[in-house]
Amino acid sequence: MSMFCNQCEQAANGTGCNISGVCGKKPDVAALQDHLLYGLKSVALYADKMGRDAEIDRFTIEALFSTVTNVDFDPEDIGKLIQKCYRLKEKAKAASGAAIACPVADWKPAADLAGMVAQGEQHGINTQHINEDIRSVIEILMYGLKGMSAYMDHAMILGRSDDAVMAFFQKALAATTDPALGLMDFVGLCMECGKQNLTVMALLDTAHNETYGAPTPTSVNLGTKAGKGILVTGHDLKMLEELLKQTEGKGINIYTHGEMLPAHGYPGLKKYPHLVANYGGAWQDQAKEFPNFPGAIIFNTNCIQRPADSYKDRLYTWGLVQWPGVTHISGWDFSEVINKALECPSLPENPGQEILTGFGHKAVLGVADKVIAAVKAGQIKHFFLVGGCDGAKSGRNYYTEFAEKAPQDTVILTLACGKYRFNKLEFGDIGGIPRLLDIGQCNDAYSAIQIAVALAGAFECGVNDLPLSMILSWYEQKAVVILLTLLSLGIKDIRLGPSLPAFITPNVLAFLVENFNIMPITTAEEDLKAILG
Ligand code: SF4
Ligand code: SF3
Questions:
Q1: What residues bear Cysteine persulfide in this entry (predicted)?
Q2: Domain ranges of the chain
Q3: What pTM does this model have?
């Protein structure tokens, strides 16, 4: 077996990619990522025994995020991260003064890439734990940490952090190396990970709202405007803001793609008149949409796919996302991208459909009285949260069908890139309340939780007793940590699809069903019937 990775929903054959990643991850990159995670655990053994160190904590977040699906495909870059990881391990060892005798603590990477790959092949997930249920729960924890690192990275870019959360990252990474811990210890760490992630999502929510103002319902055009253009895809709002500032007055229009769509709802971003439209759909549509976008294109986070030659020369990456041979912008100077956009052909004037975004918790709770009155009057019978990741595999039409077939007296809350399955359909409104409310990115899951908690408060019941059902789609590890957060809040009856994670064993699934009544999706008709009776 040249590699093994099962961390995302498109794991080959529903078990794991073992020849090459369906996502495009090559065996050398898989081995280097496994090596980097091993190195992070080595750092954590010491970092868990000392006070906070800003450099070590920041690196831990960036390195974990680099291993999330569709982020960093560049072996050279991951090799550099491994070397930095070793330097920080030595720093932590000296600072902690701890004497730890175990192979993980003794880790030292080879100096060259081939040597680091060979070492990484010894550190895959199947090499570390024999009991498959324990391994399954440790994987859930590791993928939860990866997902949480993504949200923490965005918060840190906006100057936020949290010492208790950072201490948990180190504690949990170190715990995965402890042979004395058992299944329920790791279940407890998974629940704690979900809880810590709520803190991170609140940090990020506050950072977004304080920096750019609370999102307000905003109509977004899906067409193009005459002139030069740059397409921004990913999740990072600060990067978009910097690009908007640097393109002011240059005759370049900025377009959002994928998870950048909700950026249009923020007052601090929509004030730029050259943030003109949303172009295309979810991440997995990039291969067919980017060739048709004549301007420059930049990724600021996941999800990148192998770029075609037809647009590779006008494609850029920023932040942690990297692809070999694609120009990476380090720092905050986007002049190379701007110059490329000025050289590229213009887009035509071609106005398109208008859709709504910007229903963050402040906007929705601002009309809470109206929503509660509509529920009490029987005009709104049920809420569905149909949210999560989109993906390339078949079986995701379920979410389109579910939204289409949801009765007219129901409201659909949505978030993340899965909404592209239905966000261009016409749903109408209930007494002025749109039936489809786009809460935002996966990064805005906190908003959905706030809305659910506020509704529960208004109806004097628990979230599980609300007329609210969660129909979630997952793809990568950010969805894993959101699921852990929902479970840590005691939320039950979640329907999950399009398929269940390959890293969950039958025993672990039985535990989740018994304690949380997690269900796999079936068909839209059957699930609607089961929910609405
Ligand atoms: Fe396969 Fe997903 Fe891992 Fe890529 S991230 S190698 S598609 S399981
Ligand atoms: Fe999407 Fe990658 Fe998860 Fe942010 S962009 S939700 S899949």
A1: 389
A2: 12-210, 219-343, 358-532
A3: 0.98
